[in-house]
């Protein structure tokens, strides 16, 4: 294992630093500096929760969302059961580290997801750490209206 770490650091040293520093914004850091034993999941590193509502004919959210890279967030998705609806956002889900998805008290720890679909009323809570800076859309599949998507930017 020690040899693997040394090789990894040696490979990292070969990366041109000018490209590295220009690609990552200077403010991309956790929200607090005393993370303690919980690391990035520490209470002081938690951003505001993201509320998403799946309801027939209703907007998906209250507007665009800005996240800080390195911070911990929860996205609460509530379906009212008025229609069989889902959300998709593969590019966003690949730009975060997913801690867990909680559905009816069942904790799921996925490697990655493309979408979630609700056949009936219910709540799913996704907890994650925002990682890759960029702008991403999370939307109801096969819709084109701006009210049927949320634009999430990771800074």
Describe this structure in words.
There is one protein chain. With 155 residues, the chain is of the alpha+beta class. Helix content is 15%, strand content 36%. The protein has 3 helices and 10 strands, in the order ααββββαββββββ. It has helices spanning 2-13, 17-23, 90-94, and strands at residues 50-54, 65-67, 72-79, 85-88, 96-103, 106-108, 115-118, 122-130, 134-139, 149-154. A 5-stranded mixed β-sheet has the order 1-3-8-5-6. The protein has a 3-stranded mixed β-sheet with strand order 2-10-9. The longest helix is centred in the N-terminal third of the chain and has 12 residues, at 2-13. The radius of gyration is 18 Å and the shape is globular. It starts with a helix and ends with a strand.
Search tags:
3 helices; five-stranded mixed β-sheet; three-stranded mixed β-sheet; alpha+beta; 155 residues
Radius of gyration computed on alpha carbons: 18 Å
Q: State the helical fraction.
A: 10-25%
Label the structural class.
alpha+beta
User: Main β-sheet: number of strands, strand sense, barrel status?
Assistant: 5 strands, mixed
């Amino acid at each position: 294992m020690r040899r693997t770490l040394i090789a990894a650091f040696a490979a990292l040293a070969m990366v041109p630093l000018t490209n590295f520093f220009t690609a990552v914004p200077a403010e991309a850091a956790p929200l607090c500096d005393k993370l303690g034993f919980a690391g990035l999941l520490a209470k002081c590193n938690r951003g505001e929760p993201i509320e998403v509502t799946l309801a027939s004919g209703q907007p998906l959210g209250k507007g665009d969302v800005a996240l800080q890279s390195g911070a911990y967030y929860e996205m609460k998705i509530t379906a009212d059961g008025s229609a069989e609806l889902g959300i998709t956002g593969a590019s966003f889900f690949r730009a975060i580290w997913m801690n867990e998805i909680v559905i009816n008290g069942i904790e799921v720890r996925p490697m990655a997801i493309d979408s979630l679909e609700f056949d009936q009323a219910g709540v799913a809570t996704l907890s994650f750490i925002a990682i890759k800076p960029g702008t991403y859309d999370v939307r109801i599949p096969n819709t084109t209206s701006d009210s049927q998507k949320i634009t999430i930017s990771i800074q």
